[in-house]
Structure formats: structure tokens, C-alpha cells
Amino acid sequence: MRRTSASLVAGALVAALAWASSPSLPAVALDPSAGVADLTQDINQILADSRLTIARAGVVVKSAQTGEELYATDAGKLLIPASNTKLFTSAAAVETLGLDYRFPTTVLSSGRRAGSVLAGDLVLRGTGDPTMLAADYDALAKEVAAAGVKRVTGRLVADDSWFDTQRLGNDWAWDDETAYYAAPISALTASPDTDYDAGSVVVAVAAENGKVKVTTTPPTDYLKIVNRATVGTATDVLIERQHSSRTVVITGTVATSYREWVAVDDPTAYASSLFRDALTRHGVKVLGPTVTGAAGSGATELARHESMPLGELLVPFMKLSNNIHAEILTKAMGRKAAGQGTWSAGLKVSTDFARANGVQVINMRDGSGLSRRDGFSPASIVQLLSAVRSKPWFQTWYDALPIAGNTDRFVGGTLTSRMRGTAAANNVHAKTGSLTGVTALSGYVTSADGEPLIFSIMLNQYLSSSPKDIEDKIAVRLAQFSRATATTDAVQLRATETGATGDLECSWLKPVQC
């Protein structure tokens, strides 16, 4: 296994609790009323926070063991979920594609071979693999050379026809167009790192010999760098790609090194440029230009690369709340179910899956939650979380959720710095969600009695700084919940530092990780 390696998955498994669906869990003798009144009182007190006076708050808590609803307020109201949308996308993807699903990227020849000469086109065909690195394109080029091809008389054809040509999601904000967390979606793409931020390049600056030096990861001349930055006594630098272009303008002052993740304008062209450069390094010369098109039916395979299985990809996808993974999986579902790699086809798969599992209030406009027209109710999220517990893939999916307070980034994920030192630490497995004026936390927690609970907390339309601490306080209270004894006096309704997350997902604020 590569990159999202067995060690990362094992780390998640070690950190995960033997939760919920395991028949070996000891039975808990439950009193249906004891402690619930205290829980209700405490959650009401937490939600009485002045920051929520003008906001909307929907909260549902349910016992996974008995099905009893322990707490609910505005349970059926349609609220913006932000990245809680990924709960639906990921579950539908695992159900539809399977944990063993892999994305193949292939190189094909569509002409006649005469010794080391290919009289025809060389085709690079993708199916959406978000884990493709420059090194993987280099490996494909090496395979082509090893197959004996040294000269291609035709063109390099970039075949991204597995998906449609709509690059940006429905309702995405125009000012996110250059942000790596809203990168364009294509069946051919590349990532700069093993977070697998597909469709982006890392642009780094450093002061060197009185000048500002600029480097990119991966090394590429695909972007046009305009460096207007100067060396200064402090680092106050802006690295920004101009809209609808390949030009990145760097301004400000640089004293220490700094990096920014920048979305490319066209991931197909970016990926094919990396591959063409790799071909050159391995002595394969393509005489024609690079074009976009589809491979012919008679094309033969020269080289192949397959991604890690979806069961492994779930870790960087869910732990780090990767938007691009969500959208690629959405289109992959559409391709599998309807033969159409489109948002509309993929979203129908996700919506049909949710409804088949009892979800009633749902409006999906994308797979990641970037759209402000996405809408779910807290009750719908809890229903989904309850229904998937019976799925054969549940444990793998559950382990891929961020785990509160765990300092291993590929275990704690977006909850790494939240709820540390509380009963919720290494207990809560939940998906975060953040947009300006929106925060959500939904998932699973084991009570002080060992009772498995399911919860969804959705806060919308607040004007304050992000009230994530309110979510944390509720989650901590659920971890301390006991039916046997009153806990109001003993409970510490607090949350530890949440990091400088502001109104975006923690992992979206690169290079800072919270």
C-alpha cells in the first residue's frame, strides 16, 4: 500500500473505539428517564449562549442502542451543513463503488509501431485519481520508455472524457476560484503532496541573498510566476493566482519562508504538462502538440497506474475534509451508476442512497458542502448515521472520521486540537463543517455508561466568530452522560483550544494545521 499507508490506517484503527455495531459490546442496563432531564437542561444551557441569539441552532441526540431520541431542537429544519455533506457523499461512494474501488490512469498508443517510433498519437487517459503525484506521471513515462517507444510522430492527447467538462461546482463562490479547496474537477489531475490536494500547486517563497526566491511543488513551468515581492524585516506576502489564468502574482515582503497552495486553472492541462515533461526526461519525444480528446476504440495500453483503494482514500478524504475528493467521488458515482461522469448523475446517486436509508430532508448541490444551497436537517444527518451502522463497510468508514483530541493528524484530522483533556477525547468520531456563518459537528460518542450515542449539531447564521466551542461543549457533555446518576454539578462544560480555524475547515488553512 502506498502513501495513505497501512501505518496510517492502522493508527486510525488503534485510536478508534470498538464502537456501536460490535455484538461483543457489553449490554448496558438502561433506565429510559434517569439522567435525560439533566442532559436536556445542560444542552439548553449551552445553547443559551448569546452568540446564538440571532442564529439558528439545530441539535439532535439519539441513543444508537435503543433508538430513543434524547434531545432535539429544530430537528427537522433545513440548515446549511457545510462539510457535513461529506457524510452523505462518502457513505454513498462506499456503497456504490466499494471499498476496493481504484482509479486507473493509463497511457495508450493509437497508431502503428515501427521499432521505437509510434506513428500516431500517445494518449494519457484519466478516471479522476486525486492521488496522482508528479512522481506517478514520471513512473508512467518510464513505463512508456521501457516499452521501447522513443519517438511519437503524432500528438499527446489528454483524455479526460471520463468526466464531463464542468469544472466548478454548482453555486461555488467566484472568489474561491483560485483557492486550492475549490480547485477545478477533472478526470485528469495532479496533487502536490500526500494530503492529495488535487488540482493545486504549492508555491513557496524564501529570502535568499537579498532576493525573494520562488519555488513550486511539484517543479513545473505550467504556472507563470510574477514575483513582485521584496525582502523585508517581516513576512507579509500575498501569493495569488489571477482569475481564469495561469499567472500567479506574488507581492509583499518576505523575511522567512512561506508557502501557499494555489489551484490551477485547468487540471487536465496541468497533468498533461507534468506527463510531457516526464516523457522528455525519459527520452521519449512527442513531435505533435498536446491536445484534449478521447482515445479511439483501437488504442492499446502501454502503461498503467492505479490509485490506492477507496477504503484507504477515506482517511485523507474524511480526516482532512478534502473537497476535491468529494467532488471526484460524486462524478465517479455518476459514471458507475448512469454512465455519466457529471455532478447531476452523481448527486442523484447520493440522494437516492440517503432516501433509501430513511433520510427525508435533503438538498444536495455538490459533494463537498461548499455550496450554500446544500441543506440537511439535524434529524436527517442522525438518521443517516444510524442507518449506516448496519452496513458491512461501517467500521472502515467510522474509523475514517476525525477523532477528537488525537494529535496524530491522520487520526484526529480536523478534530486534532479540539476537546483535548476531556471525556470526549479519543471518544468522539465526528465530521466537522465550516463556512462563514456556518459550523456543524455530527457523529458518534460513547457515554459514561458505555452507551453509544449519535448526534448532529448545526449552527447557522451567526455573526460572531465561529462558535465551535459550543459544539465541543455539547459533545463533551454527551461523553459524560449517564442515565444512572445526575451529572449536572460535576460536569465540566468546556472545550479546549480549537485552533485558528476561523470560518474554514481546519485543514483548509494551509500551511497552518490546527
TrEMBL record:
<keyword id="KW-0645">Protease</keyword>
<dbReference type="GO" id="GO:0006508">
    <property type="term" value="P:proteolysis"/>
</dbReference>
<dbReference type="GO" id="GO:0000270">
    <property type="term" value="P:peptidoglycan metabolic process"/>
</dbReference>
<keyword id="KW-0732">Signal</keyword>
<comment type="similarity">
    <text>Belongs to the peptidase S13 family.</text>
</comment>
<protein>
    <submittedName>
        <fullName>D-alanyl-D-alanine carboxypeptidase / D-alanyl-D-alanine-endopeptidase (Penicillin-binding protein 4)</fullName>
    </submittedName>
</protein>
<dbReference type="InterPro" id="IPR012338">
    <property type="entry name" value="Beta-lactam/transpept-like"/>
</dbReference>
<dbReference type="GO" id="GO:0004185">
    <property type="term" value="F:serine-type carboxypeptidase activity"/>
</dbReference>
<keyword id="KW-0121">Carboxypeptidase</keyword>
<dbReference type="Pfam" id="PF02113">
    <property type="entry name" value="Peptidase_S13"/>
</dbReference>
<dbReference type="InterPro" id="IPR000667">
    <property type="entry name" value="Peptidase_S13"/>
</dbReference>
<feature type="signal peptide">
    <location>
        <begin position="1"/>
        <end position="20"/>
    </location>
</feature>
<keyword id="KW-0378">Hydrolase</keyword>
